[in-house]
Design brief:
The mean pLDDT is about 95. Helix 1 packs parallel to helix 5, helix 9 runs antiparallel to helix 10 and helix 11 packs antiparallel against helix 13. Strands 1-4-5-8 form a 4-stranded mixed beta sheet. Strands 2-3-7-6 form a 4-stranded antiparallel beta sheet, with no helix packed on it. It folds into 3 domains: about 100 residues, Butyryl-Coa Dehydrogenase, subunit A, domain 1 (Orthogonal Bundle), CATH 1.10.540.10; about 110 residues, Butyryl-CoA Dehydrogenase, subunit A, domain 2, CATH 2.40.110; about 140 residues, Butyryl-CoA Dehydrogenase, subunit A, domain 3 (Up-down Bundle), CATH 1.20.140. The protein is built from 13 helices and 10 strands. It is of the alpha+beta class and about 400 residues long. Bound molecules: flavin-adenine dinucleotide (FAD). Flavin-adenine dinucleotide binds next to strand 1, strand 3 and helix 13.
Length: about 400
Amino acid sequence: MDSGSFQLPADVVEIVDLAKRIVQKELMPLEPEFLPHPGHAFGIKETTNLRTVFGSDVVEHLMKISRDTGLWYLMVPEQYGGTGLSMLAQVAILEQFNYTAVPFPFANVANILYQCEGDQVDRFLKPIIEGEMTTCFAQTEPNAGSDPGGMMQTRAVKDGGDWVLNGTKMWISGAAESDMIMVQAVTDPEKRQRGGITMFLVMRDNPGMHIEEPGIKTWLGPHASQYIVNFQDCRVPARDVLGEVGNGFRLGQRWLTIHDRLLRGPFALGKMQRSLDMSIEWAKQRVTFGKPLAERQAIQWQLVDMYIDLEALRALTYQMAARADAGEDIRAEAGMVKLTSMVWGARTVDKAIQIHGAMGEALELPLTLFYRYLRHGQIGGGANEIQRMQIARKLLRG
Ligand SMILES: Cc1cc2nc3c(=O)[nH]c(=O)nc-3n(C[C@H](O)[C@H](O)[C@H](O)COP(=O)(O)OP(=O)(O)OC[C@H]3O[C@@H](n4cnc5c(N)ncnc54)[C@H](O)[C@@H]3O)c2cc1C
């Protein structure tokens, strides 16, 4: 990993090296079993994903490494026992773990949950940090994807000490595997995204919430992990509102800025580095018409283009992480990271598949899985067009 002009402190470089060693020694050897397994899924917690494929001995071993090294708390704020590492450091470390398709277990807590107050801290936040409870985020609906503020239909109405939710959410990753779902609902139809949408923490066993199983099958994995979730007179106690009533849309946007936009950078970088490394190795040893592929200019130029995308994305991602650390409002810039990481990432992996020929399509290599994840990222969590709209808004505002 070359951090370019970003001089990472020595202690962070040490953690980056540790991450690299864990990937090489612990995770890469598991890939041949993980990749063709029918159980792995996209968009669910790392630990849940690991448990569907491997025995508890493997999962416990990885959890122990994560906890013993402190990596488990990588993304957790210091006040809850976390490392207190900067975004830049987190990005550099996460890049390493994305070199392989095998997930590493982290306390992957949606940052909005740090808004938990009072007994919510013990009932939700702490168990989620410790991995004793899992959660997911429900914003999208059958008719509300790119424009959730304008089109959301799920309604919450106050009734005594409860809110009563009615409506349908769709495409909710990991709903069936979650103990609690963070649900956005309209509480003031006049205000909508400007103070009229609220975030509710709904327990999985709430009798008014029904998750349609087996879920929606996509090309992202053999195991369906996106679900339709119905709310029918679903009573949620007022104390299970996250943050303030009416502030749920803003909370969701704040989460998306870091988790679903900026952190797509390292998600893509690891995969791009791996694709380039694999392609160089393959091109050197695969011989056609009497010469290794690496000696053909057509192949060399593809490698060069992959390298340019990788270095450009790394520079952009690290810069935006450093600007987030400096307290800048990077909402539009995080959108740039999401857009470029997914577009440049997918085209980089596409080149790797082409260079590998038929082997590029084999499920025993991670390339097609990487490609599907990166191509999906051009839709999920705010499609390319929506990122462009938000960047344009910033450009034209002043
Ligand atoms: C695998 C997967 C996992 C997901 N996980 C979750 C989850 O966990 N939680 C959750 O809430 N949602 C989730 N989603 C939903 C996802 O965030 C939405 O699908 C996404 O935001 C796009 O919404 P849409 O599909 O309704 O597209 P639409 O809004 O119907 O848009 C269709 C196309 O038109 C483009 N478009 C829309 N408006 C404009 C415009 N004004 N100008 C130009 N182009 C425009 C869009 O960019 C898109 O390309 C998931 C989706 C998938 C596929």
